[in-house]
Structures are given as C-alpha cells and as structure tokens.
Design a protein that fits this description.
By secondary structure, the protein is of the alpha+beta class. The chain is built from 7 helices and 7 strands, in the order H-E-E-H-E-H-E-E-E-E-H-H-H-H. A hairpin with a 6-residue loop joins strand 6 and strand 7. The protein is extended.
C-alpha cells in the first residue's frame, strides 16, 4: 500500500516522537499532551484552558480508539467512539506548558544584554512607578536549545499543579540534570526531510540548474538543524514551515552561484575571453536595444 510521508499529521507525530527523546516523563503516558498553554506568574492555568484541555483529551482518545479499530481496514464511524466530556476529569488532562524555567541561564549573554540595556535603557525614571526601575525580561538570556522548551503538568485531587515531564532533561527532576544532546531525530522524520527536498528539487523552476544537487544538500542540512524548532503552540502546519526553509536554502545557493558566475565572467571579459552564454546573451540583448 502506498504511504504518504508528506502530510502534516504524520510530520507532527514524528516531530513529537523526536522531541520526547530529549525529555523526562514520570510515566511514558504523560508524553502525550492534551493542550499547549502558558501558565501565569503564579504557576496556575486558567479554568477555561483546563476545560478546553478536557475537550481536547476526549477528542484525542476517541480518534485514537477509532484509528485502532479501523487499522485492519474495517469501516467504523467516529461517533461510535465518542467520549463524553463528563467522563474526562481535570486530573486526567496533561498540559504542555511553554516555559524556560528549567533551562540554565547563559551568564555571558545575560551580562552583555544588561550592559547594552544600561547604555540604551528601554525604560526611564519617568516610566517606572516609584524609585526602582523594573528589570526587563530581555536581559535574561538562556543557553541555546534545539527546540522551544516546555514542561508537562497535571492536576492532583487537591487542585494543585505538578510536573510530570520536562524537556531537555535527563533523569528525574531531583537527581537529574539539564541536557540537550541525549536525544535524537527519528529515522522516519529524517526520511520525510529527504522526501521533501527531493520533491522540491524536481519543481520546474529548480530542476534545470546544474547545481541542483548542491541545492538539495544545503536544504537537507538546513532541515537537520532547524527541524525540531517547529513550535506546535503557534502552528499545526509543519509542511509550510519546512517548505519555506527549503525555499530559502535553494535561493541562497542560487544567489551564491550567480555571484560566482558574474565574477568569473568579469575575469574572462577582462582577459578578452568569451564569457558564459548567459552573459553573452545579456550583452547582445543590451547592444541590440541600444542600437534601436
């Protein structure tokens, strides 16, 4: 059976699997989240987002049960697997909280940012309430990570939030430590990147270039570097995100090759030699228009 490797659903699934290899979870089940949120300064998630998380969980579990029942080709209606909202409790929901709280601070970058802000302050004594001028969040710089960091939270019976998962973390929360190198991209996601580059390279506006292979290699390198930086909290369309990255890589190689060709043609003309056919065509075109 022919399988389509290039749809958003499968790409999102492989992105999720790849990111979980960099994470710690109290239970493997908690790696699957129901809603992406941003907690307030008190570490509390609003009730409306908790309710939305319950709805999302009911839909996710229903779809998972439907996919499992129809995996052998049997046709079943999704309505048969519907889960009532009342059957999903607050304590069942897993929240993905986008936060940098567990990521170490880069002291050098933070110090430079603070010095730059002192030279060009974003706030003055006229903007602040009282004598103390609040420190801008921009002055806190964290170490570089390969994708937006997050934590997975749950709610206990007392209504308190607690952590059940941490990204870029190795070991349990107490004895473990921050790590960004112990995980890896899944083989299937890497295959998807290769398929994307191959398909894009066959487009009519790119396939005629002699350096098409170099374009494809550069795009694949770019995807391997930024592939996991896709943020599911902002978009559910990784296909467009990766296609834009590939387009930029192809265009970058094209511009470099054009610049090198222009330099080569300039040198040939300076030595009274014939430049490339492209330059000859440009020269003949400009001269004919000048004569007219």
């Amino acid at each position: 059976m022919k399988h389509n490797y290039l749809n958003n659903k499968d790409i999102l699934k492989e992105i999720h699997k790849s990111k979980t290899t960099y994470c710690w979870f109290e239970d493997p089940e908690y790696s699957n989240y129901d809603i992406i949120v941003t907690a307030n300064s008190k570490g509390v998630i609003p009730k409306k987002e908790v309710l939305q998380g319950r709805k999302n969980r009911a839909e996710r579990l229903a779809k998972a049960a439907h996919e499992l029942a129809t995996a052998d080709g049997t046709k079943r209606k999704l309505d048969e697997f519907e889960i009532k909202l009342k059957d999903v409790k607050d304590v069942d929901v897993v929240f993905r909280v986008m936060t940098w709280a567990h990521v170490p601070i880069d002291d050098v970058k933070t110090r430079k940012a603070q010095e730059a802000e002192e030279e060009n302050p974003s706030e003055t004594e006229y903007d602040a309430d009282g004598d103390a001028i609040p420190t801008s969040k921009a002055t806190t710089k964290y170490v570089k990570v390969n994708f937006p960091p997050f934590q997975h939270w749950k709610i206990n019976e007392a209504g308190e939030f607690y952590i059940v998962g941490i990204s870029h973390w190795k070991g349990d929360p107490v004895a473990g430590n921050y790590s960004r190198d112990h995980g890896g991209m899944t083989n299937k996601l890497a295959l998807m990147f290769m398929k994307l580059c191959e398909r894009y390279a066959t487009r009519s506006n790119w396939r005629g270039y002699t350096y098409n292979d170099e374009m494809r290699s550069q795009a694949l390198l770019q995807l391997s570097q930024i592939g996991l930086q896709f943020d599911e909290s902002k978009s559910q369309n990784p296909f467009a995100y990766y296609t834009a990255a590939i387009t930029n890589s192809f265009t970058r190689v094209l511009n470099i090759e054009k610049r090198n060709q222009n330099l080569r043609d300039d040198i040939l003309e300076m030595n009274n030699l014939n430049p490339s056919y492209t330059r000859q065509g440009m020269n003949s075109g400009s001269s004919s228009s000048y004569e007219e």
